[in-house]
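Lecture notes, unit on protein representations.

Consider one protein chain, 176 amino acids long.
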Amino acid sequence: MTDKTYNVLFLCTHNSARSVMAECLLRRWGAGRFNAFSAGSFPSGTVNPHTIATLKAFNHKTDGLRSKSWDEFATPDAPVMDFVFTVCDQTAGELCPVWPGAPLTAHWGVEDPAAAEGGEDKAMKAFRRAYVELESRIKIFSSLRVEALDNLTLQSSLHLIGTVRGPQDEAQPTGA
């Protein structure tokens, strides 16, 4: 058994919704085993208010969350990442920086909740749906015995996790 804490970076274009939710979720479910970070290729500069509302509804702390550039994590003094996950299709197709340490990568595409149309109720449902989908994947990921898997097996597992969608019924805050 190892005491290593793994660094994980979640990427999305604007770093205002999905990647921020993933960062908060891994902080909850991977506490002590993972350091979670998020960033964007073209950060919006602000976290989407629906993201904040969704995270608060599921009892996450939102203090200090901010939209930031992936450039912050490509500098020599940045934490070396063990894993980098893209959570939007646009970022997955972009040319990413070369990450120090050659982290394992996977694409965990989630539909953009910020693109939901139809008013406040539909927007909140879209954000909750994205939250539940990410939570399903992160629970699986955080339960992996990373230290016991070889890189090929681990890489295969990471790609499979990207296909998990989560419960299909309406996501509701549970007071976790």
